[in-house]
Amino acid sequence: MVTWGVFFAAAVNKTSRKLVMADVSHYLLLTLCSFLAYHVIYRHLTPLLLKALAFRPYSSLDKEKQNYVNFLTVSLIYTSVVGPCALLVHHFDRDLALVAQTGVLRYDSPAVRSLSAILLGYTAGETIVTLTDVGRTDLSLPQFLLHHVVSCWCTLVTCVYPCLPVYSNLVMATECSTIWLNIRVLLKEFGVPKSTSMNKCNNLVFFLTFSYVRVWLLVSKMYIPVTSLLMTKEFYFLELPVVITFAFCSQFFVAINLNWFSRLCRRFSSNDLGYGNDG
């Protein structure tokens, strides 16, 4: 059904239907600024910040580990902006809530597209730094690259096409749990024992946040409604990149997050709560 729908959407895109797109130039400019800011923060701001806040543990690390800690800190900064902002939009943007209730497919949400632009620049910057400088992630490199390539594609589509912003925003809200994952790994790199109250509290908040944004919201508020949309004819009148993104990438994000959640549940009784290779 989905495959035939995609072919149908491709045919529809060749008709005389007017392409509905809002101006994207300022969103792409915001993406570029986010990308450039990533490198400035990683190479200059983060080392200064860590030396000021955690001089002894940071200075005791070798250069390779310092790079990794810088990498984690930049991720912490960006996810602390994108994740909570997306969650606030989900809960308090009444216009977006009305769009979800009425089933409107095309709606221009500047907030969602701006957050997508920031996330796109950050994801692209993080990918390049990982390949050229850090060479280490909490996932295997192929898994990391696959996740980031798909994320870049999805955020780019969200920036360009004002379609289905409610569901795009929910994917960005999942970054709320990444905040606590970054803190967990930073504590580990700084040698904080797993048995400390700080680690235990962070693990609990991480698990609860992950359960909410990456399981409950992603499945009940994004995956199930999008799956229902795939069965409608109207969905395939959207632009082809939008159809491809929501038909296939929604499956991808739900699958990997449920897989990660199963790993979290298996580690729940331990003090080393995670889902990557850093446990």
From TrEMBL:
It is found in: Membrane. It holds the Pfam family TRAM_LAG1_CLN8. Residues 64-273 form the TLC domain. GO terms for cellular component: endoplasmic reticulum; membrane. GO terms for biological process: lipid homeostasis. InterPro entries: TLC-dom, TLCD. The keyword Cell membrane does not apply. The chain crosses the membrane at residues 24-41, 68-89, 204-224, 236-261. Its main location: membrane. It is a multi-pass membrane protein. PANTHER family: CT120 PROTEIN, TOPOISOMERASE I DAMAGE AFFECTED PROTEIN 4. This is TLC domain-containing protein 4-B-like isoform X1. It comes from Branchiostoma floridae (Florida lancelet).
